[in-house]
Design a protein that fits this description.
Structural class: alpha+beta
Number of helices: 7
Oligomer: single chain
CATH class of the largest domain: Alpha Beta
CATH topology of the largest domain: Molybdenum Cofactor Biosythetic Enzyme, Chain A
Strand order of the largest sheet: 7-4-6-5-9-8
Length: 419
């Protein structure tokens, strides 16, 4: 199958004169400028969990494929019934799931039928076994049934040719059950988006390596790689590269060869050792989007050898927050799953704060036992422990606001970001 066209080199260019971009405008611009970059492949339905459908699915078979019994009971033709209490002789045999009744049930007779069994000809109504009495081969029960009671019609759930699932859906376990029930054994899905993750900086070391007093362990790479994995994409670990211009370029080239998107953290500002920024600037495609957000601000967006590069801040808290807010919906759009906007909850605040105007703020937060939004004890962007403490984010809009305990605030559980 053919691959979709790649993004253009100027897709991230901002209009002249833009200095600080509000969060909503940043998201709208990203949504407008990216599109699917992965190819399409067929996979067996049983192995399609977590994959993104590339085409609408129509049912190949009715579900259920035949009229069947919803209960253990006795079936008959409704026309056989009269007024008042009922008495119908039992026919020989029975109908069971996997063991259908061979023949036609005579008029004014009843047949033993079990849950899931194909309803044989001559039956259109079933009475629950708990509601009957059998004496001398005669079925007795009180009138009160409606025609068609306890019968699941053929195609009641999904009919042949009817749409079952739409393109762009990330397939869940229940979707695989639906596909199997309507006879779909193979589906066309987008190839997994390959997302390379690269850390830069002479100050970084990997956990387990010897470390000097002036160095720190790389928290971003394991965090970002697992985010990619949890979002159903294929992480490509480019490791860590020192502050060396040539090595940075080599690693970006490797990323462009092995992945569909490159995520970097750090080195994307304008300092002497910001070699990611320098390399992307030399390619002529770098755009530093100064986003009015806290924590965060700089987003480096560029193309490297035809592959989009998403430069996140180096601070782990800022990298995590901007990955959820900006990288995730962009990557989902690139993967074929479509743009995803988290659903907000409105909770009473368990805190007070004087929020200044100008930037949108995201506070590490969790819902307490009373259903209130509690925030981490410190807003310091270096306090990565707050991310583990939290189970969501409180969003404070761009305008200034005085928040008192009990005031409603916008809360996004981490589950809304695929976590």
């Amino acid at each position: 199958m053919s691959n979709p066209p790649k993004l253009s080199n100027d897709c991230f260019a901002l209009p002249p004169g833009v200095h600080w971009t509000p969060v909503d405008e940043t998201l709208a611009a990203l949504r407008d400028r990216v599109s699917v970059v992965t190819g399409i492949e067929p996979v067996p339905t049983v192995a399609a969990g977590g994959r993104v459908l590339a085409a609408d699915i129509v049912a190949k078979r009715n579900s259920p494929p035949y009229a069947n019994s919803a209960v253990d009971g006795y079936g008959f033709a409704f026309a056989s019934l009269g007024d008042g209490d009922q008495a119908l002789p039992l026919a020989e045999g029975r109908a069971a799931a996997g063991g259908p009744f061979d023949g036609v049930v005579p008029a004014r007779k009843a047949l033993r039928i079990l849950t899931g069994a194909m309803v044989p000809e001559g039956i259109d109504t079933i009475v629950l076994e708990e509601d009957v009495l059998i004496e001398d081969g005669v079925l007795k029960f009180a009138m009160g049934l409606k025609k068609g009671a306890n019968v699941r019609p053929k195609g009641e759930d999904v009919s042949v040719g009817e749409g079952a699932l739409s393109a762009g859906r990330i397939l869940q376990p229940q979707d695989l059950g639906l596909l199997a029930s309507v006879g779909v054994d193979t589906v066309d899905v987008y190839e997994r988006l390959r997302v390379a993750v690269l850390s830069t900086g002479d100050e970084l070391r990997q956990v387990g390596e010897d470390i000097a007093p002036h160095q720190i362990y790389d928290a971003n790479r394991p965090m970002l790689l697992d985010l990619i994995r949890r979002w159903g994409m294929e992480p490509v670990d480019l490791g860590h590269v020192r502050d060396d211009a040539d090595m940075v370029k080599q690693m970006l080239t490797r990323g462009a060869q092995e992945a569909d998107v490159i995520l970097t953290s750090g080195g994307a500002s304008a300092g002497d050792e910001d070699h990611i920024s320098a390399a992307l600037q030399a390619s002529g495609t770098l755009n530093l989007w100064r986003v009015a957000i806290k924590p965060g601000r700089p987003l480096a967006l560029a193309m490297w050898e035809g592959v989009p590069v998403f430069g996140l801040p180096g601070n782990p808290v800022a990298a995590f927050v901007t990955a959820l807010i900006f990288a995730r919906p962009t990557l989902l759009e690139l993967s074929g799953a479509g743009w995803a906007e988290p659903r907000v909850m409105h909770l009473p605040a368990a805190f007070s704060k004087n929020k200044k105007p100008g930037r949108r703020e995201y506070l590490r937060a969790k819902m307490d036992a009373n259903g209130h939004a509690e925030v981490f004890k410190s807003e310091g962007s270096g306090r990565i422990s707050g991310l583990s403490w939290a189970n969501g984010l409180v969003e404070l809009k761009d305008e200034g606001r005085e928040i008192a305990k009990g005031d409603p605030v916008r809360y996004y559980p981490f589950s809304e970001f695929g976590l």
